[in-house]
Amino acid sequence: MRIAILAEMFYPDVGGCERRFLEIGTRLVKRGHEVHVFSTQSKKELSKTACVNGVIVHRYTYSKDYLKLSNFRSISGVLKYSVATVFKLLSKGDFDIYYLNQWPIMHSMFVRPFFAPIIQEWCEVWLNKIVVFERIISKIMTYNVAVSDFTKRRLVRFLGVPSERIMVIPNGVEYKKFSANKHKKRWGKIVYVGRLSPHKHIDMLVDAFYKVKKRIPEAELHLIGSGLLLQLIKKRASKLDSCFVYGFLPEDQMLDILKSSWLFVSLSEREGSGIASLEAMAAGTPVITTDYPDNAAKELITSVRSGIVVQPNISDLVSAILKVYSDEESWKEMSNNAHLFAMKNDWDAIASQIESYFYEIRSKYDRVQGNYS
């Protein structure tokens, strides 16, 4: 099959969606499919055309300050990308499947009238100023993929999408790559991997670490990832001992830090599934996350019993970290639960699931069009 993935950002940009499409795209290429990603040129230094693990990447419509500190996108940037994507797709010929990432959402409205079959992916349901656009997309898309049962329930409850029009295809993890020898864990080493954006509340984590460090002198905090707040977080962390802010790291360096970590902390307000948490679990690292209404990671952590869900404040976060530090038996139980769950959710299995779904949708489309070849 010839597959088009429409995603506003792609590797080397770091985030859950970027990781998902890289892992899935890589595996689909290995299975003989031709995969194209249509993305913004998020940084001027990125080449406009690239091949990443066999995936053909088209980057275009550079917009300065595309992502805002308010979590919203530049309106002009979104319009530019959405319009340009239509013409870019037309120039590349027909694809068997058009798979659309949720963001920046307006691109789905522009692409829908011109191409088929289209599958809309939903990583989250964000009930705020953009809900009107979410409602429009939910009404015009026949085929939908949710990255978790949590997101599917919200699609049904809040947007009225019929359950039978939603396929759940979760995120995965390359278990062999992330699994670690537990004896290499460094007790007191806390890690965060992900985008440095306002809704991730990295500032809360840094402030909590300041208090933890007073009680646990050997504690370390390692923050990995790029984003709007990178320089601000670096400045804030520079006043603390043993607080390291790396920005983007090559995968091998990130893996070394994650595998040796003792605790993973994610304080995000919004998570459709939480790939970074799943990768931490594969490394046998318990996870602390927050009880925000839109955070699907809390459901994962609770169901697997691989960590602790806390209220989103510094006091509760500090208490949870100290509790885990003082209870090694509890830590071992959470670590083991995390390992076992991650083993069952390898990206190879996820790729098989999405490949089968693509064939199913393409077959339905051909029958409707009278194309039985």
Number of strands: 14
Class from secondary-structure proportions:
alpha/beta
Overall average residue pLDDT = 93
CATH class group of the largest domain: Alpha Beta
**Global morphology:** globular
As residue ranges, the low-confidence spans are: none
Residues in β-strands, percent: 15-25%
CATH architecture of the largest domain: 3-Layer(aba) Sandwich
Helix content bin: 40-55%
The tally of structural domains comes to 2
Q: Largest sheet, order of strands side by side?
A: 3-4-2-1-5-6-7-8
- The radius of gyration computed from the alpha-carbon positions, rounded to a whole number of angstroms, is 21 Å
Number of helices: 14
Could you explain the architecture of this structure?
- With 373 residues, this protein is α/β, with parallel strands linked by helices.
- The protein is built from 14 helices and 14 strands.
- The strands form 2 sheets. The protein has an 8-stranded mixed beta sheet with strand order 3-4-2-1-5-6-7-8. The chain has a 6-stranded parallel beta sheet with strand order 11-10-9-12-13-14, sandwiched between helices.
In brief:
Helices cover 43% and strands 17% of the residues. The chain has 373 residues and is of the alpha/beta class.
